[in-house]
Amino acid sequence: MQQMAELLKAQKLKVTPQRLAIFKILYETTEHPSAEHIYKRIQATHPTMSLATVYKTLDTLKKAGLVQEFNVGEDSFRYDANVNTHPHMICLTCHQVFDLHTDKLQHIKKYVEPETDFDIDFEKVFFYGTCAKCQKAKEKS
Amino acid sequence: MQQMAELLKAQKLKVTPQRLAIFKILYETTEHPSAEHIYKRIQATHPTMSLATVYKTLDTLKKAGLVQEFNVGEDSFRYDANVNTHPHMICLTCHQVFDLHTDKLQHIKKYVEPETDFDIDFEKVFFYGTCAKCQKAKEKS
DNA sequence: ATAGATGCAAAGTCTTTGCATCAAA
DNA sequence: TTTGATGCAAAGACTTTGCATCTAT
Fold this sequence. Notes:
By secondary structure, chain A is of the alpha+beta class.
């Protein structure tokens, strides 16, 4: 978290309790929460923080390269403090979003680039299916 | 297009001029238009069609598996009549979305599945970068 | 004839913006 | 002190919904 303050300073951004709190939530969860989720969770520690601040802060952090934003087909965006390129898996039953820890897709960018005339910077990969828990629930029924 | 009527009938959906017109636009473009784009383009031939009908129709076609929907980070969804799993490339400069025709990623699902406890149905892959045209424009400047 | 689709307007989400106040540097 | 951040309310953008009318079957 100390590190977070440094990262903000490095971008010439002010270090505020709000920014630290939002980053902390994102840093400690694997749930890829939406702005609304973050807002609700933050009530416990920062009951006066407004939803607008959550949105503004997420935008600021995104532009600073400290969080990434994506949409898996829902009506709102989700956020992730892990800005490294990594695939996500979406359960079509419980709608949870998981990180996929694998090195198997490390080089798809370079693998694919010769096939195109694009200069590729990064990719986003989403796998859709059924998580372990929901698979078991279906077996029982 | 005759085929489209058959596909609708197969789903026990009525074959209406509105549905055919929307599918035709999606089928003939490679632009991956949003609902609003489709609505504007459709004015030329169907000036009385409402935006609500465009949304309802896209939802119907999506549920029937005749179009796919995705969000590349914009404020609206885009639609594609090509429902086969295929990667998209997004130009971060001109914001156009292109299909990537390649067989290099045909098997990433099976390649990755052993690394997870998910039962994967399909994937969505997006490459972000600079298209050929925008690369050239930058060289000149 | 009947079930279902369309079109319009209104409403519902999610997100952004304007502006006065407040806090970090 | 100065610059930028926060919080509130209002506005904006995209999408959905309710309902009367119309149309495909």
